[in-house]
Amino acid sequence: MGLSFSFLARSGSSAPASSQETGLGDLPESCVASVLSYLDPPQICRVAMLNRAFRGASSADFVWESKLPLNYEDVIGRVFEKDGVLFKGLCKRDIYARLCRPNSFDGGTKRVWLDKTTGKTCMLISSNGLAITGIDDRRYWTRIPTEESRFYSVAYLQQIWWLEVYGEIEFPFPAGSYSLYFRLQLGRIHKRFGRRLCNSEHVHGWDKKPARFQLSTSDGQEETKQCYLREPGKWIHYHAGDFIIPNSCKSMKVKFSMTQIDCTHTKGGLCVDSVMIVPVDRTRLQRF
């Protein structure tokens, strides 16, 4: 498809066309739009620059409706609630563009957006949106600002015997398979003379017992994993499990947790940034 467009564009510009010849600009917009519906959004935006016909066809509602989740109206209602009126009168292309931005909801503790290439739903839940045992006791936990988080702060554990981090979300996830990750880091990062340095003063106890990650859904899906936390100074996405949203599901409640409740030793020096829910695709996790 891409080669065909490139060939047509080159052949159309290599020599002046006679009045009897036709070019890309003579194609009916409806035909062009039918072709564009088979491309992904970045490709549509690129070919829209070819000429006026392609530019006009790239705005067709049916082209972009095929890229939106089938339940995009439910997503808008959940994320924007009373502000959903902002979408009235927008064409499907503008709705797609709006949903591709990181949109905050639930008091700013969560963000959701569509991946620009695939149109699949992605979500982040901040540490402020999680239930953390002892979070209000400054002997154990503190909130520290950082530019390394999309929420600009993380929960930092100095020392504790009983680690419990819980969360849940009820959301109209579009049908598909999703993975859930905890974004964690051992050690506290600071900068000195522009260099990124890791303070591992409080890091201890994570080599004694593994952390336990659990995931469950309202339709009975469950998964449990155990993993040692390692590599101080590096943000790591720890996979808690996968879940599937069937086509018939209107809204799914997902519960998840990270615990390390062996009271024979203390543990500390942990930064809890966020929980990430993304479409199952291990090779593209770095995109998020």
Automatic annotation (TrEMBL):
Signal peptide: none annotated. It comes from the Eukaryota. Pfam families: F-box-like (PF12937), PP2 (PF14299). Residues 21-67 form the F-box domain. PROSITE patterns: FBOX. PANTHER family: F-BOX PROTEIN PP2-A12, F-BOX PROTEIN PP2-A15. This is F-box protein PP2-A13. It comes from Sesamum indicum. The gene is LOC105164143.
